[in-house]
Specification:
Shape: elongated
Number of helices: 9
Length: about 190
């Protein structure tokens, strides 16, 4: 086996219990799966764990595998793991703060991800529009104008504590309203491809 071994050959050998085939499959797709999952979760340890879980499952069920496209199969499995990770509440609190700072015009890993990110951006913008006026103003100054809490407090003539409290409210609303959509966005392409 080498880099020219096809995915179908790897799956056939893997189903026979060939460890070298498993190792080659792992090496071939681990980095792409990690990049994909990190692009969403921004948590190195969680990404490594869930990808490891997927490959452990593949090895444990190797005899019954009927996979036509390992790349698509593994990516779908990782999406399910990410969705479960988010659903279980294990997602880092800072994820929602980071996602509001994300440049949605930047190039994403693939066209499906670009579509998902645009939809996520639309959801975030809708949540922001529905924030109370002062909370929305503070949130926008932080995320769009990139002002520090001190700069916002000075500009609006309020205390830094008030700015911090309003940002906490904004991020809490963002988390509670975006999280269910995020799971749906992750699973939609998988469901549509079934």
């Amino acid at each position: 086996m080498n880099a020219n071994t096809t995915d179908q050959e790897l799956i056939s050998l893997l189903s026979q219990g060939n460890e070298d085939a498993f190792n080659l499959l792992y090496k071939r797709y681990w980095a792409d799966l990690y990049k994909f999952s990190f692009f969403i979760l921004r948590d190195k340890d969680a990404c490594k764990d869930l990808i490891q879980d997927v490959f452990v499952w593949v090895w444990a069920h190797r005899q019954g595998l009927a996979i036509e496209s390992p790349k698509s199969y593994l990516k779908a499995a990782v999406k399910y793991k990410i969705a479960n990770h988010i659903r279980s509440g294990n997602i880092r609190e800072s994820f929602f703060e980071e996602v509001t700072r994300f440049d949605f015009t930047a190039t994403a890993p693939g066209s499906a991800e670009v579509t998902e990110l645009k939809e996520l951006n639309n959801i975030i913008q809708q949540v922001v529009i529905n924030l109370p006026f002062k909370c929305q103003e503070i949130f926008r100054l932080s995320r769009e104008a990139h002002l520090s809490n001190r700069e916002i407090a000075e500009q609006l003539g309020i205390s830094i504590k008030t700015v911090e409290n309003q940002m906490t409210i904004a991020l809490h609303r963002l988390r509670t309203q975006v999280e269910p959509h995020l799971i749906g966005l992750l699973l939609l392409p998988v469901i549509c491809s079934i």
